[in-house]
Amino acid sequence: MSQRYQVVIVGAGPAGLAAGIQAARRGLSHVVLERGEFANTIHRYQRGKHVMDEPQRLQVHSELDMEFLAGTREAILEQWEKDAESAGVVLERGPEFELIGLSGSHPNFRLELSGGTTLEAESIVLAIGNQGNLRRFGVEGDQLPHVTYQLDDPAEYTGKRIAVVGVGDAGIENALALVEHDNDVTVVNRRDEFYRAKQRNRMLIEAAINAGDIEHQTNSVVRSFEPGKMVLATDDGEKTLDVDLVIGRLGALPPRKFLEEIGIRFPSDTKEAIPEVSDTFESNVPGLYVIGSLSGRPLIKACMNDGYEVIEYIQGNTPTPADEPMLREILGPLQGSVSEIVERIRQTIPVFESLTPIQLREFLVDSQVHLKKADEDVFQKNDFTDTFYSILEGEVEVLLAEGGSHPENPRLGQGEFFGEISLLSGRRRSATIRCVRDSILIETSRLAMQKLRKSIPQVSRVLDTTTITYHLADLVPAMSQAERHKLANASVIETFQPGDAICEEGADPDGLHLIRRGTVVVSRKRDDREVVINYIQAGNYFGEVALLYPGRKRGATIRAMVVTETIRVPNEAIIRVTQAHPELREGFERRSQQYSLQTEQALANPNATDLVDFLIDKGGKDATDLLVIDESLCIRCDNCEKACADTHRGVSRLNREAGARYAQLHLPTACQHCENPRCMLDCPPDAIRRHPNAEVYILDTCIGCGNCASNCPYDVIQMAVLDHSRAPNLLTRLLFGSEGGKRGHADANEEGKHEVAVKCDLCRDLPARRGGEARAACVASCPTGAIARVHPQEFITDIIGGPWNRI
Questions:
Q1: Residues 446, 387: Cα–Cα separation, whole Å
Q2: What is the rounded CA–CA span in Å between residue 236 and residue 499?
């Protein structure tokens, strides 16, 4: 006869142990089943790992007889074993206690275990976590012996070349621990920030990278493995690293197949989806509860609170959730209980409707509620902020132009959101947002939203659809909102690695591509070589020519130069739009004529391809502004450097002699004002700003930390002491008047010993040249006109069809 329990708890991690301790305290007949190690989640941490008690504002239920203080992995495991033994927890551990089948229903469940035992239970608590279902690379060579997904003891490795792939907390902690044992460590990051990590870990890894202790390989994806090697796709193309060990910290997925076999539903088909549970942790199967990381709450303190609360719910009690005081403070201005407010947010704001109440509570910890008055600005155009706003009540206006409110300005109301453009791109605010009437807004940090986008695809899709509608509004202003939404729902966001062909010459068209991020190059075959025709950056589109004429093939090959994202509007959808909006087709036809002319010029001048390749390789991939010198005109007078230094308190922002050359074209070392400037990623005082025209500059509030200089891939930012006593020379005064060269960093100390970051700012503070337009000092001072500031795309067009043909 099988043994019967009031509650069976599956999993002895933090959530399962807490549930077992509380069940014992309540006098329930119970058993905790664990197929692996005691507190297996913690046990699998690397030896000596410091376990943090974040978020610090969240308290563990005082009635729970289970202690958790930040400390080492070993100390916590020892304490929890004592707590479980002291409470009288019934624990069965070993491979024979794995749950393999479930039948019956509440209150008569039958559990089949791998050892052949059958148990009966009134209620079941699943606290199995996700760690038994680790993500794998899924690329060629990932079965090689130097590829692993776990680090048990960092001290086992010394003097090794180790790559850690994945920048969540586990990956960061592995990397930091391995560096302490004199290993050469590279962290491989799909992006260029650490949005999934706790704040303390973010600070530690950024400090280690800035100190040169860890190499940070950004915007990189693993392509394959070879013995002793790892091949990456990066912004600069394919890159091979020599490695002794690769540790993939790629996260884990819920054991979906098993959960569905026992009747648990998921809200979507995506791999990252978590089970549907109520705010009492009960699944769609009555009497079957899901807690801990399996329910979307991976933090240890949250797991422990789940274990305590689920037993109270099973007992018929209504415990106050441990996060209630914290959320009450965050949601303070709103009326109603926390649970009522959470449900109101879910029902009102579509971007959050796919979250369970438990997930939304976790998410709101990183949010703020604002009560805004009518005519009050939420943020202003060009602000360098990147938080996300949802409208719970009220209405806001998007001020697209100077001069304030206008009937044609877009308005957003209850349930809508804004701020996603800066959220996705990291760019400055593109418009001012002003409240039309009193409004209740929920502001969420960029890191929290990025984490949500990554973990819940439905949220990502809602955000993507909205950004697509904005791009479509720019493309066809006359299109109605309903048409834009319909077209957005038909569109697809696609990502391409450097060198990938987005379109092949001679292939069937697949739609219109709007470039959301990155840069592409357009080429055609001529005498067995690729002839560059065009170079297109983010914010533009391509593929319209093949859509104008039925049966026409792609006329060119288009390749990604860096990691590139496009919004692809399928053929049928965009053709319907051109039929409904003749002005769009007319615009396409004009571009087609321009394209034909440019193609003829390029094919007539194939030698220009080598020059274009040079430009793209040496800076054009991400540049919005290039400094170029025609060496056939340059007389080496160095007026450009002198004028730059004189304009910027004795420190020249350019090095005329340095830099790449091709024939007579020279690219001196100077800032290129990148489309995606890495220098802006980690500036503590937020002193690096970007003008809407893409100019990147440094404010006087620079503290001289050097993070920007370390992050710049082109080595054009220098740390220098400015000479505030230096007056502009005669040439500068003649060119720009007495005000020329008077600007500088205000925080340099009187002794002149305080270093600050300096780089080209396009002489943004100079007055216009006397008798002419505003120009950079280096350009204005050149006596032969050899030096110029150019936009890469325009310059390449000139090379293909203009006077640079002679090169």
A1: 5
A2: 9
Per the CB < 8 A criterion, the answer to whether 777 and 766 are in contact is yes
Rounded to a whole number, what is the largest CA-CA distance in the chain?
102
Closest CA to 512 of 458, 592, 453: 592
Angstrom distance (rounded) from CA 789 to CA 667: 10
Whether 668 contacts 654, CB under 8 Å? yes
pLDDT tens sequence across 647-685: 877 888 888 888 888 888 888 888 888 877 778 766 777
How far apart are the C-alpha atoms of 172 and 204, rounded to whole Å? Answer: 9
Inter-residue contact 109 to 19 (CB < 8 Å): no
The sheet carrying 626-630 orders its strands as 655-662, 665-669, 626-630, 787-790
pLDDT of residue 378: 93
Question: pLDDT category, 753, cuts 50, 70, 90?
Answer: low
C-alpha to C-alpha distance for 242 and 146, rounded to whole angstroms = 11
**Residue 353 CB neighbours (<10 A):** 16
What is the number of residues in the chain? 807
Helix (H) or strand (E) holding 647: helix 639-647
Cβ proximity of 472 and 484 under 8 Å: yes
- Whole-angstrom CA distances from 54 to 12, 70, 299, 305 are 21, 9, 7, 13
Alpha-carbon distance of 684 to 266, in angstroms, equals 41
Looking at this protein, which amino acid is placed at residue 537?
Answer: Q
pLDDT digits (tens, 9 = 90+) for 454-465: 777 778 878 888
Q: Provide the 3-class DSSP secondary structure of residue 655.
A: strand
User: Over the stretch 164-209, which tens digit does the pLDDT of each residue have?
Assistant: 999 988 899 999 999 999 999 999 998 877 877 877 888 889 888 8
Q: Three-state secondary structure along 205-244? A: HHHHHHCCCEEEECCCEEEEEECCEEEEEECCEEEEEECC
Q: In the 8-state DSSP scheme, what is residue 115? A: T
Residue 590 has pLDDT above 80, yes or no: yes
β-pairing, 118-126 vs 147-148, is unpaired
Mean pLDDT of 106-135: 89
Say what the pLDDT of residue 66 is: 83
Higher pLDDT pick, 355 / 596: 355
Q: What CA–CA distance (Å, rounded) separates 45 from 249?
A: 12
Q: Cα–Cα distances in Å, from 615 out to 532, 662, 666?
A: 12, 9, 10
> Is the Cβ–Cβ distance between 327 and 333 less than 8 Å?
no
Residue 447 has pLDDT above 80, yes or no: no
d(CA 17, CA 304): 8
Tell me how crowded residue 706 is: count the other CB atoms within 10 A of its CB: 16
pLDDT at 745: 40
| pLDDT at residue 721, rounded to an integer | 83
- Residue carrying the six token digits 């899924």: 138
How far is it, in rounded angstroms, from Cα 539 to Cα 421? 12
Amino acid letter for position 704: G
Taking the C-alpha atoms of residue 718 and residue 723, their distance in angstroms, rounded to an integer, is 15
Q: Do 774 and 578 meet the contact criterion of CB atoms below 8 Å apart?
A: no
Q: Which amino acid is at 538?
A: A
pLDDT, tens digit, 9 for 90 and up, residues 217-252:
988 999 999 999 999 988 777 899 999 999 999 888
Band of pLDDT at residue 689, cut at 50, 70 and 90: confident
